[in-house]
Amino acid sequence: MQTDGQKALPKLAFVAWAGIAAILIYLSWGHIVSRSGWDPDDQLRMVQLRDFLSGQGWFDTTQYRLNAPEGGPMHWSRLIELPLALAVLSATPLFGQAGAEMVAGTLIPLLCFGLVAYMLGRIALHLGGPVAGTLAVVMTMVSPAISMQLRPMRIDHHGWQLVCAALALWTLFWAASRKAGICMGLALAVWMHISLEGAPLSAAFFALLGWRWAVSGEDGTRLGYTVGTFLLTSLALFFGTQQAGMAAANYCDTISPAHIQAICAASIVVLPAAFALRRNRVSRLAALAAAGVAAIAILLWQAPICGKGAFSTMDPVVRDYWYIRVSEGMPVWHQKWATALSLLGVPIAGAVSLLFLGRSIDGDKKADYAGLALLLVYSALLAILVFRTISVATLIAVPLVAIGITRLFAHYKAATKPLHRVGLVAVMILLLMPGVFIAQAVRLVSVKASVQASADEEAGAKRVQKCESVESVSALAKLEDANMVAPFDIGPSILLTTPHSVLASSHHRNEQGMRAHIDIYRLPPAQSRAIVQRRKVTHIVACPGEAEMKGYEKRNPDGLWAQLAKGKQPAWLEPLPDMGAGLKVWRVR
After folding, report:
1. Close Cβ partners of 184 (under 8 Å, ≥ 6 residues apart)
2. What are phi and psi of 553, to 5 degrees?
3. Torsion of CA 238, 241, 247, 250, to 10 degrees
4. What would the pLDDT profile of 85-114 be if each residue is shown by its tens digit?
5. Of the candidates 521, 552, 551, 544, which has an alpha carbon nearest to the alpha carbon of residue 460?
6. Separation of alpha carbons 200 and 536, rounded Å
7. Cα gap 465→19, rounded to integer Å
8. Which is deepest, 260, 349, 399, 589, by most CB within 10 Å?
């Protein structure tokens, strides 16, 4: 039977969602109208969606305007494109193709946002009551680390990863073990199918369930149904999206035959053990260890290179010029420290809240809090090593922060001294929006030392931003059909707004195209010309001041781009008038 708080939460969540959604639509309107998303991944996802709706096969995710004519292989799942495709097909009769893409790109991320906020609200409601549930919904909506992945036109897979993470987390607090296991298994399988970035945290969820079963003495229903559902869903998604089935090549960046065999091996051990083994800690721990060893051994046997990481086979030049410069995939010490501290605010607040709650946690809920604490620590450590996972760490921290604020509010109501009450209000506001306060503190500390440098950098950044914008890049559509070399981050925008092809973008499966792209810019003009001719490149595009271009200029002063930047162009290139907001274009003679 639902309590009054449980009945009220959906209404409160909907009101908060509607208000924040309206604000986000207003703030994102330029991105919505241009259908450009927020980064090259969103842009290329829209291109992939259009190709799919135009008849490209379900099993064929190749982007044929990358590295033409062979095409650039993509590791993305069609699963993400299904809800977008359904929304576009439904809205096209009313709004036309362009309007339907706007509707789909706005609606789908915002629906995911609402789902995540509601699920986190239910967790906080279960642990801390109605006020905590409401606060968790609000905190989710105003958290930069979460909202940046769920705002309108953020159509890449990151938002769906958060939905899967929130669902898996929520099921930990369900009393119905069978239902919880089925839903968690489904969530983790979809998460890992969407992106193998979910593997470390999926392993943490399995480890937590295994620990509760082996050490805490829970029955095996939850663990068994989670593993069984995970196995069946993984098999269905793999064979449903992989035409070659088990004959497909093994990749380390997506679910491949080797991963399927590893999942099967672990499941074969855990499933009977979960339902048959008695409450014996040693035998249960031995079963879990055997499952883990079997999975790792088979994965390394079938795909030994995956033991070195998903990008271990990457061309060293591509790694050096591109991969290590993708800051979101790097550890926290590779980030701008002000941004990193700001986004780490909620996980830090979650840890502080957990320490504050301490002994006041009810005995029957200690296991729930312990699970949250373990997942928070693990996800925060993972975010320190791979910073783009910070959104999941924030998601796990939100219920803890909401409960902490609720307890502080109870102290506030009981306090009689004005100074004590003011202090409690300040702490509650700090916990509610920690990132904002950290950002302001950073500005106060650093502003005096770097005002002029920041102003110069901001002016240059604005010029580059205008140069790279879809409005600027769309001017290239005036050229005849072309096969271009353009900065990695501009490539998807060219595919989105023009009929042209580009040699490469910042998508690693197209490694050969990426290496040729880098070599054209960095090698001396004579060597660049040979690659241009071999790759049938017709135009070279650049955005002066863009980070990639500055890197070539600094590291390769005799390279083609460094020479072009100095106004020294080889005879085999013909300069064209600037296009867009300062795009430099040369036609290959």
Report:
1. 167, 168, 171, 172, 205, 209, 222, 226, 229, 230
2. -65, -40
3. -70
4. 999 999 999 999 999 999 999 999 999 999
5. 544
6. 42
7. 29
8. 399
What are the tokens at 361? 């946690």
Distance, in Å, from the CA atom of 361 to the CA atom of 346, rounded to the nearest integer, reads 21
Could you tell me which of 157, 75, 145, 77 has the C-alpha nearest to residue 109? 157
d(CA 91, CA 69): 33
Alpha helices (runs of H) in 54-80, residue ranges in sequence order: none
Question: Given the structure tokens 């291109």, which residue do they identify?
Answer: 47
Let me know: does 555 contact 522? Beta carbons within 8 Å.
yes
Token pair 């090698």 is found at 523
| Cα–Cα distances in angstroms (integers) from residue 223 to residues 230, 369, 524, in the given order | 10, 19, 60
CA gap 99, 83 in Å, rounded: 16
Q: Which residues contact 37 (CB under 8 A, 6 or more apart)?
A: 31, 43, 45, 46, 105, 153, 154, 155, 156
Task: Tell me which residue has tokens 């306090």.
Answer: 415
Q: What is the DSSP letter of 507?
A: -
CB 154 within 8 A of CB 109: yes
d(CA 98, CA 35): 8
Distance CA 141, CA 146 (A): 8
Helix (H) / strand (E) element for 8: namely: helix 4-27
Taken in order 477, 479, 481, 486, is the CA torsion positive or negative? Answer: negative
Distances (CA, A) of 7 to 122, 133, 486, 497: 11, 12, 54, 47
Using an 8 Å Cβ cutoff, are 198 and 161 in contact?
yes
Q: What distance in Å separates the CA atoms of residue 402 and residue 518, rounded to the nearest whole number?
A: 48
Tell me the whole-structure pTM to 2 decimals.
Answer: 0.92
Cα–Cα distance, 458 to 256 (Å, whole number): 44
Task: Tell me the residue length of the chain.
Answer: 589
State pLDDT tens for residues 396-451. Answer: 999 999 999 999 888 888 888 888 888 888 888 888 878 767 766 666 666 543 44
For the chain, the farthest-separated pair of C-alpha atoms sits apart, in whole angstroms, at 83
User: Buried (b) or exposed (e) across 299-332, using 16+ Cβ within 10 A?
Assistant: beebbeebeeebeeebbeebbebbbebeeebbeb
* Cα–Cα distance, 490 to 1 (Å, whole number): 54
* Residue with tokens 């307890």, as numbered in its chain: 407
Residues β-bridged to residue 483: 501
